[in-house]
Fold this sequence. Notes:
Elements: H1 7-16, E1 22-28, H2 29-34, H3 37-41, E2 50-55, H4 59-71, E3 76-81, H5 86-90, H6 101-114, E4 119-124, H7 132-145, E5 150-154, H8 176-185, E6 190-194, H9 200-207, E7 213-215, H10 218-222, H11 228-234, H12 244-260, H13 266-269, H14 282-292, H15 300-316
Parallel strand pairs: 1-2, 2-3, 3-4, 4-5, 5-6, 6-7
Amino acid sequence: MMDWTDRHCRYLHRLMSRHALLYTEMVTAPAVIHGPRDRLLAFDAAEHPVAVQLGGSDPAELAQAAAIAAGYGYDEVNLNCGCPSDRVQSGSFGAVLMETPDRVADCVAAMIAASPVEVTVKCRIGVDDQDPAETLPRFLETVSAAGVRRFTIHARKAWLQGLSPRDNREIPPLDYPLVVQMKRDFARLDISINGGIATLGEAEALLAQGLDGVMIGRAAYHDPASILPQVDARIFGAAPGRGAEAAVALMLPYIEAHLVAGGRLHQITRHMLGLFTGRPGARAWRRVLSEEAPRDGAGPEVVARALAQVTGAQDAA
């Protein structure tokens, strides 16, 4: 979800679910140590609970980055061992770490020693020619022995050679049963599943098989109103979250504050394009935001005009 789940996206999603755990984009340990920390790590307190996702393969760097990130108030520090992009491969982190579980164990041990908040791991079932039925249990055993108790497993193998990250979203096939089996084999661990889950019904079916959690990425981003408002009620047994119209209304003061601070409207509204997916007026909503929000001087009035397209279409229907 790099370039997607930034602080503006997370603020919007938190308006629609009070209880879902939100994750940052992956940020590399060297960037945290040497880069613009506030720009990379600062977030609104309203986003809690929120986890920071780190990338790296050097135990000392990851320990330092984990300590810095924890100091910003995150609820969890997550080591990404699942991203298959060329950029992370060249840096010897992300999914390529599935090939070196001992190194991952060294990394998380150093992070746990440095971080006052829980350290977790997101991984794949395997990479390239690995046999996931052999690779994944060894990975979980090795890394959990270093102190990690919570894993989120993307149920698709990552092909680091010959497939683009886009192609790897569909190839090879997902293997949910293997992840379910890992929960049975490692009952002491908290295991969540990720990959291709598009509805709360699918999430509930996986939870019913004994898994501890479900991570939904692209579906929650592209069509948040069909998922997030019902998460609190159906998964957490709490009151339902806010719908799309209520979320838009509450985004307006946030947008105004962002503009006063020197930001631009499209930095926020690009995350709002899918709010009305499947509803009358959705196309007009997207068109107004896409065409007008990037313009110099664009402000909350653009969002109001876009919303009027939706409410007008609903009235006409």
